[in-house]
Specification:
Among the domains are: 52 residues, no CATH class; 135 residues, Rossmann fold (3-Layer(aba) Sandwich). Helix content is 46%, strand content 19%. It contains eleven helices and eleven strands. The strands form three sheets. A four-stranded parallel sheet has the order 5-4-6-7, with helices on both faces. Helix 4 crosses helix 5, helix 6 packs antiparallel against helix 11 and helix 9 packs parallel to helix 10. The longest helix is centred in the first third of the chain and has 27 residues. The N terminus is likely disordered.
Length: 357
């Protein structure tokens, strides 16, 4: 159905041309853009954290062990203890003014700014919203709401610069699950990884330059810390590790720095498997033992600050560096809703909307 096939009775809806009088209203056709992020608990209490962690850790893309082996361990041991520690970590960074996690606050603001940019270019023909893979607003609820609003074509944008099975793939999986339940499926495009997009690299470099300019003395080393994955993922064809390495290289080249001035490490490791490395928490301690007194850490894999950056990096990893003899630690915030980051996201979106708008 095209716009010419709908007679508009009021903004946003109308009736099909030549349709019977009792035909239900049909929304005006539009294009939808959905920004998808990892997720957030609804609150920091035990049961809210348990619900969130259960959804997250039951995802086969995140933990791909056989259910008969993993679920008893998860339900009987991990989920009896971890909601307490995770809740404490979230309480330390919680946006108390809005009673929500920083990730939710930032993603909402990113969405608002992206919507403004697309409205300036396309008017009201593009509807923008956001969803979370785990927690709320759910992917299913947002896609259904967009379809009800007339979005016959939807661009689904996982906000992960580097592709990984536990992030990009599971976000796409969830979108496809909704499509499987719909009588009338919208056309769906997924946005590929943008780890090497020049506007994204420029935004990262700008954020580093600003952080260094604000420091009393420039850090001696910049550590690019990415979320870790098991090493076997690399052997099984997941490109994440390689894309992270390329992002670091492109960032270093954009900054014009020597190779040793920007180093790659990986955080958030758990379980008995061998993970890609070096582990950030150990690497920063080693830098301190080697005499580095001031380092900076940036998180290029996260589009918005969250518990892994605000709590893990700015507290746990920072403490590891200082305990090993380091003296000054600079955290370079995620790109969040910086204007240059929004422009990078808009450039990616406009490219992927080609032929639709």
């Amino acid at each position: 159905m095209t716009a010419s096939q709908v007679d508009q009775d009021q903004p946003g809806e109308g009736r099909l041309a030549h349709a019977p009088a009792d035909h239900p209203p049909v929304a005006r056709p539009r294009v939808g853009v959905v920004l998808a992020n990892l997720g957030t608990p609804d609150a920091t209490d035990y049961w809210s954290m348990r619900r969130y962690l259960n959804e997250f850790l039951s995802d086969k893309r995140v933990v791909d062990y056989p259910s008969w082996k993993w679920q008893p361990l998860l339900q009987l041991i991990i989920l009896t203890k971890r909601p307490f520690s995770s809740g404490a970590a979230y309480r330390g960074i919680w946006n108390t003014d809005r009673d929500e996690s920083p990730l939710l606050t930032i993603t909402r603001e990113q969405t608002r700014k992206v919507a403004e940019g697309l409205a300036a270019a396309h008017g009201d023909g593009v509807l923008v919203d956001f969803c979370m893979r785990y927690g709320n607003p759910s992917t299913d609820s947002v896609l259904r709401r967009m379809q009800a609003a007339g979005c016959e074509k939807i661009l689904f944008f996982p906000l992960y610069p580097q592709y990984a099975s536990p992030t990009t793939a599971t976000a796409n999986d969830q979108a496809f699950r909704t499509l499987m339940q719909l009588k009338w499926q919208p056309a769906l495009r997924t946005v590929p990884a943008y780890f090497a997009h020049p506007d994204y690299i420029t935004a990262l470099a700008n954020s580093v330059n600003e952080a260094y300019a604000a420091a009393e003395e420039s850090p001696e080393v910049l550590v690019a810390s990415y979320h870790g994955v098991p090493k076997r993922f690399l052997r099984e064809g997941d490109p994440y590790h390689c894309q992270c390495q390329k992002t670091t290289r492109l960032l270093r080249e954009r900054l014009g720095w020597e190779p040793d001035a920007v180093q790659t490490a990986f955080q958030s490791q758990f379980g008995p498997e061998e993970w890609v490395g070096p582990a950030t928490v150990d690497h920063v301690a080693e830098l301190a033992r080697r005499g580095r007194k001031h380092i900076a850490v940036i998180s290029p894999a996260f589009s918005a600050d969250c518990v892994e950056t605000l709590e893990e990096i700015n507290e746990e990893i920072k403490e590891s560096f200082l305990a090993a003899g380091g003296e000054r630690f600079t955290y370079v915030p995620c790109l969040n809703d910086r204007d240059d980051h929004i422009q990078a996201l808009l450039a990616v979106i406009e490219n992927e909307l080609a032929g639709w708008c």
